[in-house]
Amino acid sequence: MTTKPNLIVSSLDADRLDALLASPDAKSFPGRNALESELGRADIVDPEDIPPTVVTMNSTVRFKVDGSNEEFTLTLVYPKNADSSGHTISIFAPVGSALLGLSQGDEIEWPKPGAGVLKVRIEEVLYQPERDGDLHR
User: Fold this and answer.
1) CA distances (Å), 33 to each of 53, 97, 119, in order?
2) Conformational region of residue 58, where left means phi above 0, alpha means psi within -120 to 50, and beta covers everything else
3) How many CB atoms lie within 10 A of CB 67?
4) Is-contact 88 75, C-beta < 8 A?
5) Cα–Cα distance between 18 and 16 in angstroms, integer?
6) What are the strands, taking DSSP E only, across 71-114?
7) Measured on CA atoms in the order 69, 113, 59, 7, is the torsion positive or negative?
8) What are the phi and psi torsion angles at 58 (to 5°)?
9) With contact defined as beta carbons under 8 Å apart, do 121 and 53 qualify?
10) DSSP per-residue codes, 30-57
11) Helix, strand, or coil (residue 10)
């Protein structure tokens, strides 16, 4: 059995996500239970106490695909800020929910188009609002 990595979530993100999950729009969100489960097992800390290498809401993250030199960058966003540019991922996407609270060096499975999964490593948190003092974005 694979042990899930520790999650650290800021109290500000947790409060905003709880409010979002309580909204009528979130009732039909298919990954709702998974996000609630992840939030339920996370260590909730003050935004000022978030380690600088943790993925928080609005963080920009550089990933590397296991077994290749392929890298890509995404920003974890609230659903209203997701777009089709390929540069954002909504917290409501299964991979988005899985990213919240992870740290540099953690690995996750990423669904491939069509079928199968890739193992992807968080190489670097390029931007994290808390690290930059933007605690109330």
Assistant:
1) 26, 10, 23
2) left
3) 8
4) yes
5) 5
6) 71-77, 88-90, 107-111
7) negative
8) 75, 10
9) no
10) TTHHHHHHHHHHSEEE-GGGS-TTB--T
11) strand
Quick check: 68 and 80 in contact, CB under 8 A?
Answer: no
Supply the pLDDT for residue 49: 94
- Cα dihedral sign, 28-4-54-109: negative
Rg for the chain (alpha carbons), in Å? 14
Sheet holding 71-77, edge to edge: 88-90, 71-77, 60-65, 117-127, 107-111
97, 38 in Cβ contact below 8 A? yes
Average pLDDT per 10 consecutive residues for the chain, totaling 137 residues: 77 94 81 86 94 96 90 93 90 89 91 81 96 80
CB 30 within 8 A of CB 93: no
